[in-house]
């Protein structure tokens, strides 16, 4: 359910102005905005110079209108430069922070190519795993050295004796390599 049937709009901003809100109508794919798919659109505009941000969103209409957007890449036909805008978030009223539009700034690849994508992946991983650390959960870390478990209990106590059995029943396991 990461795709959308809603109408998607984009505004691109550069040093010489912006495009205004444009609906992305004709993709090179028959069906646009499907999960795992890359869609390509042609947007006519005056040359904006160096690009620095864009705003992308949808109208929230249609069944399954929530959308997970990985990134937007804009190819400037005048300069032949590619501008990457990383999102890696939901545009969905029922997911993430509930926003159906995002303002994205151009990715800076000068210091370390892929660094921002790496940071987004780290943030996404934490967002997916942080529920394990909610109040009331017991965590068990398996230690390969002792072949036992180190348990972090909801009452903030730590059982570091390295018991070889799972005496807590249903818990979350995390592997720790020593």
TrEMBL record:
Ranges of residues in domain PLAT: 1-105
InterPro entries on file: Inner_ear_hair_cell_LOXHD, PLAT/LH2_dom, PLAT/LH2_dom_sf
Highest taxon above the source species: Eukaryota
Entries under PANTHER family matching the protein: OXYGEN-REGULATED PROTEIN 1, PROTEIN CBG12474
Protein name: LOXH1 protein
Source organism: Brachypteracias leptosomus
